[in-house]
Specification:
This protein has 241 residues and is an alpha/beta fold. It has two domains: 3-34 and 106-239, Rossmann fold (3-Layer(aba) Sandwich), CATH 3.40.50; 36-101, DNA polymerase, domain 1 (Orthogonal Bundle), CATH 1.10.150.240. It is built from eleven helices and six strands. The chain has helices spanning 3-14, 36-49, 58-62, 67-79, 85-101, 111-120, 134-143, 166-175, 189-197, 212-217, 227-239; strands spanning 23-26, 124-128, 152-153, 182-186, 201-205, 222-224. A six-stranded parallel sheet has the order 3-2-1-4-5-6. Helix 2 (36-49) packs across helix 5 and helix 6 runs parallel beside helix 11. The structure holds magnesium ion. Magnesium ion binds next to loops.
Length: 241
């Protein structure tokens, strides 16, 4: 599908008369920062240490849920244990330490060009992430000083992680414009589902093992094979023609 066709479909589906992009709601893990490999390795280690069977790649499918939601889900499914919030937070803290041991993650290649194109077009840039991990949130501050911490929705700000629309609805509220004027940049199926349910035009980028097909099935309006391809197409998306 071309950019034009996907915008036309989106407008028809949402009853939007005019195309205007006023804000971009930007996911963090796998979009801003190349963190997913280390996240999945840290999750795997936590589960193995606690005798819970899992595969590394399954954590790509949970991406977008808050950290404590993932802990609760795996302990319930894998060990029949129902954890309290405090217990889940403690295990998530251990996972965070394993993540830190793996070193500092870099930026996703191409993201700087996406961010500067948005800035130059006066599009608000709001980070919407399920992460509650201090090391990741601090890293956004260090690597992307132009992305203000006040313009951010994190796992600390929501009751429900993705695929619930709450994180993106909070992002839309922060932007102060209708959802139909917000584009979302995501890499995970649950994130795409959440963005689509919030009514935003949803752009997915395959920066991990999840296929383009899975992202389309989750509700993505457009899918790009990498961030550079999105950066190339972004001016056309912003113009809508
Ligand atoms: Mg992500």
């Amino acid at each position: 599908m071309t950019i034009q066709e996907s915008i036309t479909n989106y407008k028809r589906f949402t009853g939007t008369a005019t195309w205007r992009v006023a804000a971009a709601l930007i996911d963090c893990d796998g979009v801003l920062l190349d963190t997913m490999k280390n996240h999945t390795r840290a999750w795997l280690k936590l589960m193995q240490k606690n005798g819970i069977k899992c595969s590394r790649d399954e954590f790509y499918l949970y991406e977008g849920m808050t950290g404590t939601e993932i802990v609760k889900k795996k302990f319930k499914e894998g060990a029949g244990k129902v954890l309290t919030d405090d217990e889940a937070r403690a295990y998530y803290g251990v996972k965070g330490r394993y993540f830190l041991e793996l070193g500092e993650p870099g930026k996703v290649a191409g993201i700087d060009r996406v961010l500067s194109t948005l800035r130059d077009a006066d599009v608000q840039r709001i980070v919407v992430t399920g992460s509650q991990q201090a090391s990741v949130l601090n890293r956004i501050d260090r690597e992307f000083p132009g992305l203000l911490s006040t313009e951010r929705v994190t796992g600390h700000d929501v009751h429900h992680g993705k695929p619930h629309p709450e994180p993106f609805l909070k992002g839309v509220a922060k932007a102060g414009v209708p959802a139909s004027q917000c584009i979302v940049i995501e890499n995970a199926p649950l994130g795409v589902q959440a963005a689509h349910a919030a009514g935003c035009f949803t752009i997915a980028v395959t920066t991990g093992p999840v296929s383009a097909k899975a992202l389309t099935r989750a509700g993505a309006d457009l899918v790009f094979p990498n961030m550079d391809a999105l950066a190339d197409a972004l001016p056309e998306i912003l113009k809508g023609k």
